[in-house]
Every structure is written in structure tokens, then in C-alpha cells.
């Protein structure tokens, strides 16, 4: 697969490492459609030994059973974890409770000594996982710029979300290389990688393969196309193109357009609540 780790991400990581000294805990945002693919080994150096609260974001796009499985798994590793749909105003309050819970001993000590102290949490994760949406939800204002594509946040910013808590939004950082091609495809499918650097038909074919493994009927019922276990994925994509009028002059299939259509339908939840990973 292509090399997609842009140079500016190294600079971002260095900055995050420097800023992390000021932080008391980390809000590690995972896309609930592929939580394991969102774990970035580079973040170990940023987080160190400090507490992590994993946020299974975009949980509205995933079936409940998967959310519960991943939540139990992350908790079993000794971390905190909350599931979230950050697009609904007020939902992120659970994060404030989670921060207060992981820092409860330090908060109690401060109260004993009657000192006011600001605790700081850094929001980190791969691009497009919803970090800025979470920050906006936490402060109730459009403070952080968001967008449904990778690489929206460029600069760091501290935002007060509670009398005693500030959070910092950070730009998304991808894994510098992939030993696991499947994880790379999950990130491409869910929109963590800029679409401009991807060959969309390649991503669409992999999505078809994954969806058929999960449930053979997802695509047939959504697009009203016929196929079985032995149908080549490209034929399924062509059949969807015909049904949706993705045809160019001369009757040829518009592969790029049908690929984008399928991927966008998945990203927007139009194919149902689907997790791409199993534990
Ligand atoms: N369905 C759904 N969409 C979400 C959720 N959270 C965020 N989004 C959408 O995901 C897209 C990306 O959100 P951002 O908050 O910009 O993501 P980010 O992690 O800050 O991205 P970068 O700054 O590029 O790293 C936006 O279109 C959001 O509306 C969620 O819980 N559910
Ligand atoms: Mg952002």
C-alpha cells in the first residue's frame, strides 16, 4: 500500500510529547467501527504511564454488542472506557465523570488541602475519529474546527470544560507504517486517511469483501443486486454501479464514482450499524 504518513505528523507528535508533560490524563479517541486499527503505537511515547480514558466514538454507527465487547476488553487491560456519539449535544458529559474518576485521589488531596488546581487532559487519536467534535461537545461551543475528512485540526488549543478541567485538542496522527494491511484498509474505509491519496476502487472492493464476511445480505438488500459466495467482488461493484447509474459515456462503468458512493454509504451509516473488527 501507499506511504501515507505525512511529514507534518512527526512534528505534531514531537509537540504532543512536549505538551503531554502538562497533562494529567489522556482522552484516547477510537473510531468504534475499527477500535483496534485506531491504536497508534506512536502514542505510547506521548502518554507514558499516565491514565488513559478510551473513547469509543461514533458508537451510533456500530451495533451495541460490539461496543460492549470492545469496552470490556479495554477495561480488562486496566483502562477506563466510555462509548460515545459525540454529535449529540451534552453526550460528552460522561467524559467529565470519567476524568474525575481516574483522578479521584488527586482531586481528594486537593480538596483536603483546600487548593484549587486545574487538571489537564489531552485528546488524541487518529485523523477523523471525532476529537474536535468531542471537544466542542464538552465545552458546548464550536471552539474546535471539525470536518468529515482526515487532517482538519492543525493547531493545538486548550479549552476549559469544567471549573477544574481543561482539555487540549490535537491534530490526528496516523501510524507511520503498517505491518497489518487489514488495519490499513479499515482506516482507509472509515476515512482516517485522506481520500486523495487512495485508489478508491481498491478500498471499495475490500469493503465489499469485509461486508460479505460479516453478512452476505447487506449489499443485496441495500442496492437490490444479486450475487452469491462465488461472485467476484468486481462484479458486485459493477452491479451496484448499474443500479445507481454510475455509467460513463459509451455505457462503461464509472468505477471511481460507484466506489465513492459505496464507501460514503458505509461511512454515513446507510448500510447499517457495522463494526469492521472482531475481537
Ligand atoms: N456519526 C458520528 N459522526 C461523528 C461522531 N463524532 C464525530 N463525527 C463526525 O466525524 C467527522 C470528523 O470529526 P472531527 O471532530 O473533525 O474529527 P477529528 O478527530 O478532530 O479529525 P482531525 O482533526 O482531522 O484529526 C465529522 O464529520 C463529525 O461530524 C459520532 O460520534 N458519530
Ligand atoms: Mg480535529
Textual characterization of the structure:
With 279 residues, the protein is an alpha/beta fold. 41% of the residues lie in helices and 14% in strands. The chain has 2 domains: 8-169, Rossmann fold, CATH 3.40.50; 199-267, Conserved Hypothetical Protein Ylqf, Chain: A, domain 2. Strands 3-2-1-4-6-5 form a 6-stranded mixed beta sheet, with helices on both faces. Helix 8 packs across helix 10 (233-244). The site of magnesium ion has 6 residues, from helix 6. The site of guanosine-5'-triphosphate has 25 residues, from helix 6.
Question: What is the topological layout?
Answer:
Layout: H1 8-19, E1 25-31, H2 44-47, E2 52-57, H3 64-76, E3 80-83, H4 93-102, H5 104-113, E4 119-125, H6 131-139, E5 157-162, E6 165-169, H7 181-190, H8 200-214, H9 218-223, H10 233-244, E7 247-248, E8 252-253, H11 255-267
Parallel strand pairs: 1-2, 1-4, 2-3, 4-6
Antiparallel strand pairs: 5-6, 7-8
Helix pairs in contact: 7-8, 8-10, 8-11, 10-11
The protein binds guanosine-5'-triphosphate (GTP) and magnesium ion.
Architecture per CATH nomenclature, i.e. the level-2 architecture of the largest domain: 3-Layer(aba) Sandwich
Please state the structural category.
alpha/beta
The percent range for helix content is 40-55%
Report on the biggest sheet: 6 strands, mixed
User: Stretches where pLDDT falls below 50 for ≥5 residues?
Assistant: none
Percent of sequence in beta strands: 5-15%
Q: Using the CA coordinates, give the radius of gyration.
A: 20 Å
Approximate shape: elongated
- Work out the count of structural domains: 2
CATH topology of the largest domain: Rossmann fold
Helical segment count: 11
Amino acid at each position: 500500500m501507499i506511504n501515507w504518513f505525512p511529514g507534518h505528523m512527526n512534528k505534531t507528535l514531537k509537540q504532543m510529547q512536549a505538551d503531554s508533560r502538562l497533562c494529567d490524563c489522556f482522552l484516547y479517541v477510537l473510531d468504534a467501527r475499527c477500535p483496534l486499527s485506531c491504536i497508534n503505537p506512536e502514542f505510547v511515547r506521548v502518554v507514558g504511564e499516565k491514565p488513559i480514558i478510551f473513547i469509543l466514538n461514533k458508537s451510533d454507527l456500530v451495533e451495541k454488542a460490539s461496543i460492549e465487547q470492545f469496552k470490556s476488553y479495554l477495561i480488562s487491560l486496566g483502562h477506563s472506557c466510555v462509548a460515545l456519539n459525540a454529535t449529540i449535544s451534552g453526550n460528552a458529559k460522561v467524559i467529565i465523570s470519567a476524568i474525575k474518576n481516574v483522578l479521584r485521589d488527586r482531586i481528594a488531596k486537593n480538596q483536603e488541602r483546600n487548593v484549587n488546581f486545574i487538571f489537564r487532559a489531552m485528546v488524541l487519536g487518529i485523523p477523523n475519529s471525532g476529537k474536535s467534535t468531542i471537544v466542542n461537545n464538552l465545552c458546548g461551543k464550536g471552539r474546535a474546527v471539525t470536518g468529515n475528512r482526515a487532517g482538519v485540526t492543525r493547531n493545538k488549543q486548550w479549552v476549559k470544560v469544567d471549573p477544574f478541567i481543561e482539555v487540549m485538542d490535537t491534530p490526528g496522527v496516523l501510524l507511520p507504517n503498517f505491518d497489518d494491511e487489514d488495519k490499513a484498509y479499515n482506516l482507509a474505509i472509515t476515512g482516517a486517511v485522506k481520500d486523495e491519496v487512495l485508489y478508491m476502487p481498491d478500498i471499495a472492493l475490500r469493503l465489499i469483501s469485509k461486508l460479505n464476511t460479516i453478512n452476505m445480505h447487506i449489499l443485496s438488500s441495500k442496492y437490490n443486486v444479486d450475487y452469491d459466495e462465488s461472485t467476484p467482488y468486481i462484479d458486485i461493484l459493477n452491479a451496484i454501479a448499474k443500479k445507481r447509474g454510475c455509467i460513463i459515456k459509451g455505457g462503461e462503468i464509472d468505477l471511481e464514482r460507484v466506489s465513492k458512493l459505496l464507501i460514503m454509504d458505509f461511512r454515513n451509516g446507510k448500510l447499517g450499524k457495522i463494526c469492521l473488527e472482531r475481537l
